[in-house]
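Practice set, problem 2.
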Amino acid sequence: MSLYQTSLFLHVVAGSLALATFWFAAALRKGSPLHRRSGQLHLLAMLAVIVSGVPLTAVLFARGQAVFGLFLGFLLVLVATSCWNAWRAIRDRHAPARYAGTVFRLLAVLLFTGGLLLGALALRWQQPLLGVFAAIGVLAGLDARRFLRRLAQGALPANWWLREHYGAMIGNGIAVHISFFGVGLRTLLPQLDPGLQLYLMWLLPVAGGLAAGWWLDRRYGRTMGGKAGVATRQPGLGT
């Protein structure tokens, strides 16, 4: 097989594993050993998705599909950010300054810059879908800036790491479900207009992610008393 074919095969296999482990981890008691192991396997699968996506992005540029190539490259940065933040929020829950280190800041800048670029392309080509993800990139960059400001002010809540962790995992969930819907909608609902299929493929996971974030904020995201850097135990979560 060619490099492109090999990368595509690995991308599909890793994405399928990431989808399965995402739901397996979501169904388990938060903080349990099985939850942690399945979460680690999920992040490894997502790493394979990112690595295999790089050659696919390069092929798009080589074929002259620069806009699509930029979009896919932005998505890879978005997924990489979610994976990094999900992992480091747990590892650095006692050290928020270490969490907000060089990689955190670099990824935030890339997302913000990529969002602005996608926004310009959305206006140029009249593509609302690009505009949606442009807004996601810009908002992610601004949210990272807000986190850094609160860190400098000593205003982070004790459960900051939990919010960062589940927020990043929701981002991963959105990514794997976009891939799933990309295949599933065409198979299950072939009679739908292709344009409508495209928008449903991208926007349904985003809407689901927003709903999941709202629910998790209500369940786990309330501000806990205490000082940032002290990992406070949450109901139903082991630390």
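Problem 2, part (b): a different protein.
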Amino acid sequence: MTGPAISVATIGRESEPVVTIEDFAPDPHGLRRLASGADFAPDDLHYPGVKATVAKDYFEALQPIIATVLYDVFGFRRGASVLAATYSLVTTSPHLLSVEQRMPHVDAIEPGRMAILHYLALEDGDGTGFYRHRSTGFETITPERGAAYFASLNADIAAHGPPPQAYINGDTALFERTAHIEGRFNRALIYRGRLLHSGAISVGRELPADALTGRLTIASFLAAQ
């Protein structure tokens, strides 16, 4: 078995780095088995599906490569603490999505907040899309931009109506997709939490609440320094 392979893409006009790591975890099938016995439940109003807790030892084998990426690519010298890590399954049918779930989102706006998305479905070509808000040109949302972004977004919806009753998966009237990274088994993405992004869910895709057949990922959020 080969070790993890790291590549870096610089996306959008804001030239934000997104790191892709192949063969991220040493035992991805073991993670799937653990997920199959986990207790999934709705976690919050924003995520269109269910989540379950990931074991604390998940990061033991991954810490060296994560630390390398945070240092070499993002310039964090003092490491990072884990804020949350969950198995995640997208399960919500498109006709049940809220307005917020039909648009790109950010994971956090504070400096130093990082996201790791680990694909664990055996076949998941959908992946993740990254976006630019057309009216403001913003591809990232920071504390300084937050008020202007949400005011402009609300004005957009008032003028154009809410987004279509579907998962966003490409250009729309309100957003332009700047990059799409395909989901592959045991691939991970590392990016700043402030990036506008969304899961790329294909039209007509089945979304079972089953860890072994569904769109299984592990989503982790870090505070880096």
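Answer key, part (b): Helices lie at 28-36, 63-72, 146-160. The chain has one domain: 5-224.
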